[in-house]
Amino acid sequence: MLKNRVAGARELLERFEIDAILVSDLKDIRYLTGFSGSEGLLLVSTAEVTLLVDSRYTIQAKNGTTGCTVVEFREKQTALETIVAGQGVTTLGIQAERITVSFYNELRSHLPSVRFVQMGADVALLRIVKDAREIACLEKVATIASEALLGTLQTITPGDTEKAIALRLEFAMRMAGADDKSFDSIVASGERGALPHGKATGKSIARGELVTIDFGALLDGYNSDETVTISFGDPDETQRKIYQIVKDAHDKAIDAVKPGVRLKDLDSVARDHISQKGFGAYFGHGLGHGVGLDVHEKPVVSFRSEDVVREGMVFTIEPGIYIPGWGGVRIEDLVVATSDGCRLLSRVPKDLMIL
């Protein structure tokens, strides 16, 4: 499996007319080799795949990677210079979107005879279509998170704070087998629901409020991402109306997913529905994003996207309406594109839940 991934990286050598690629993004390194440490560099050339690590990770890298030569370094730049020179590399692709200016300047100073070619997200784009093992892992972690949320909802009582709910949810995900949370959970109640990224605060949940909870779990390097909006107590007519508008936009977009469909058109399906109902000005973000080793990765599901749906893509569908001074509703599911549509990986039912 990893051989196929490295083969994809090597195709970039010909496209960019370079001798090697220096992979500095740790998620891309993990994708290509299986290495999960917090420090390392990967050099991919036609003949060699070389993983540079410090002494903390030498044993881990040798035991836990496939298809690469592990080199321990004491000084990273010196080790890289030696390997590049030894392999006769004269043109080197670098991940311009993933390195700092200072790191780039150090590379140039340590490798004065090498010509650097700045690449964009080309290596990360190799991850855009998931294989069967990745999809199975994403489904497992999404299930863990969904079941943890359903259990947590049963514990909410008047006076609970947003932070308390977030902490109980995180604990439930860890107890269910997750390695960690994917991100700080968003718990936004009442008027705070108008904040798309309203992280949990000490605010207490009150009867009659809508509560948006955006959460995810991490397992074996892979993330989940899901959002529910629940009503704490009976919702009023306006709350029900806006919830249903978002739910219909969510459902229409999911029904439209199939290979070959432009991602910008999926965004339009949901956005047009919300606009037709008079709330287009209150849906500002894109419809979704890819999820995998990063919780936000390619593809981007928005009006800016030039990609089309491909079988094996995993991404979110998450329309929302956010009204300052009133609150908001967001409904999000994680889907995998199939040969004729898509399948939900997240598990929480999206009809309005009333606690």
Name its key features.
single chain, 355 residues, alpha+beta, Creatine Amidinohydrolase, Chain A, domain 1, Creatine Amidinohydrolase, 2 domains, six-stranded mixed sheet, three-stranded antiparallel sheet, 9 helices
Description:
With 355 residues, the chain is α+β, with helices and mostly antiparallel strands. It has two domains: 2-127, Creatine Amidinohydrolase, Chain A, domain 1, CATH 3.40.350.10; 132-344, Creatine Amidinohydrolase, CATH 3.90.230.10. The protein is 34% helix and 23% strand. It is built from nine helices and 19 strands. The strands form six sheets. The chain has a six-stranded mixed sheet with strand order 4-3-2-1-5-6, sandwiched between helices. Strands 7-10-11 form a three-stranded antiparallel sheet. Strand 10 and strand 11 (222-223) form a beta hairpin. The protein is elongated and about 70 Å long. The N and C termini lie far apart (46 Å). 43% of the residues are buried. The model has no long low-confidence stretch (mean pLDDT 95).
